[in-house]
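Data availability (excerpt). The following record was deposited with the supplementary files.
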Amino acid sequence: MTSTLNVVDHPLVAHKIATLRSIDTDPEQFRRTCSEITLLTAYEALRDLATTETTVETPVATATARILTTPAPAVIGILRAGLVMVEAILTLVPHARVGHLGMQRDETTHEPDWYYNKLPSHLGEREVIVVDPMLATGGSAVAALDHLKSEGARKLRLLCIIGSPEGVQAVHIAHPEVPITLAARDPGLTPHAYITPGLGDAGDRIYGTDT
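Predicted structure:
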């Protein structure tokens, strides 16, 4: 089974991606724009979340309705840049459970080093949404998906803002059943494994630690 790739093609998303790319965008605007893009792309990424039929009483009559199947979905943010995306998704799914995976990239090997791991219970029963603004080499995403599967997660999906062909391919190879949603797909990577043209280091730009 081959995983799906959905690059959201929408003028509002394209406009906001341009704002993220600009070197003149300050951290406050960068954070706000990341959140807005997450909201727009999550609408597509979560289109097939499982629902259960129920009834609700309106002021007029009984209505048939659909609600998200229990247990609640889990949103797993890859630290630190993924935090801004987690908060955005919680505005859409406020009852979601939240987990964090802390990895930082080794600048020599470009592979992730772990430093934090806190996950919700019953992962095997939940829809699990992994979020990280950048899908560059795919190393962090693959490591996160590997770990979540080892903890019992089975219904996984990956949501990123910008990805590279190399990162997409790495996830496809390692986790062929996991759907990927991006707001933009860039042409490739620099020799130092940064997405180009990209937007720089997302964590630094979100938190203002690049100056």
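Summary of structural features: The chain is about 30% helix and 30% strand.
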